[in-house]
TrEMBL record:
<dbReference type="Pfam" id="PF00069">
    <property type="entry name" value="Pkinase"/>
</dbReference>
<keyword id="KW-0808">Transferase</keyword>
<dbReference type="InterPro" id="IPR008271">
    <property type="entry name" value="Ser/Thr_kinase_AS"/>
</dbReference>
<protein>
    <submittedName>
        <fullName>Rac family serine/threonine-protein kinase homolog</fullName>
    </submittedName>
</protein>
<keyword id="KW-0418">Kinase</keyword>
<dbReference type="GO" id="GO:0005524">
    <property type="term" value="F:ATP binding"/>
</dbReference>
<dbReference type="GO" id="GO:0004674">
    <property type="term" value="F:protein serine/threonine kinase activity"/>
</dbReference>
<dbReference type="InterPro" id="IPR011009">
    <property type="entry name" value="Kinase-like_dom_sf"/>
</dbReference>
<dbReference type="InterPro" id="IPR000719">
    <property type="entry name" value="Prot_kinase_dom"/>
</dbReference>
<dbReference type="InterPro" id="IPR051681">
    <property type="entry name" value="Ser/Thr_Kinases-Pseudokinases"/>
</dbReference>
<feature type="domain" description="Protein kinase">
    <location>
        <begin position="25"/>
        <end position="288"/>
    </location>
</feature>
Amino acid sequence: MMFESATEPKLLYNLEEDFFDRFNLKKVRLLGKGMAGEVFLTTSRDGSGRKWAVKLFALDEDVRERNLRHFTTEAGVLQAVSHPHIVPCIMAARCPDYAALAMPYYPRGDLGFLHNTQSPTEVHRYMSHVVRGLEHLHRQNIAHNDLKLENVLIDAQNRAHLGDLGLALEVKDASRTALAGLVGGTRKYWSPERSEANTQTRIDPFKADIYAFGVMYWVLVSGEGPQQHKDYRDKLADTKLNLSPALRLRQQKKEDEKERRIERRGRNDSRIRKTLRIDLAQKEKKWI
């Protein structure tokens, strides 16, 4: 079932007025747009410089039920689960025409935006942050249920944070499984079990999260985009040939530098051998 142990957020304002007027905020620019609504960078009108990312969930009649469910789930999970690598919820509010979720602003954007710009060291660092946040969720019996690059945000200190938990699942069943129809996410990140299951088959959403994590890692390391029904085992067997151009260039530079070091060492060795020969020759002259 959907996350129910915290479906009513701890901090929820029910407003008759506009959220931005109530909290003296103004929209600066659109940061992104998704299925449920839009995310805006906002700043305080009082000149304090406070910046938030505010996610708006449209409550039009045709999407009201779905978007309210996503809003309530995301706000509830973010307020119930605290971790350094999970996006926190500053506040949540329901207005007549929309619901709003205020979060910290992450100036470096998401991993989807940064894709193909990171060094291998940065990739491993980001993914170590992601797996810590994911492990914390799983320990609370919560599956993220929509892991992808676009749902990992990077702060000014270059730390990664898991976000967008509107599809999160809390699994109370002793088998740690859920109906496949509830195991959502982006199809290109689906596990083989999810792709092959019908909606009433029970599958493990935690393993589905781990599979999606692996796809993210592969995409960042290889430079390729995620693909549905892809067998990544074949790719892993030939990783070197499938490195992104940027990674290939870095690897080639390392190999070239290694060759130069060997060459310099060889020249130095030649000079040493030549010096030794001269010294020996001079000593032989003295002995004669």
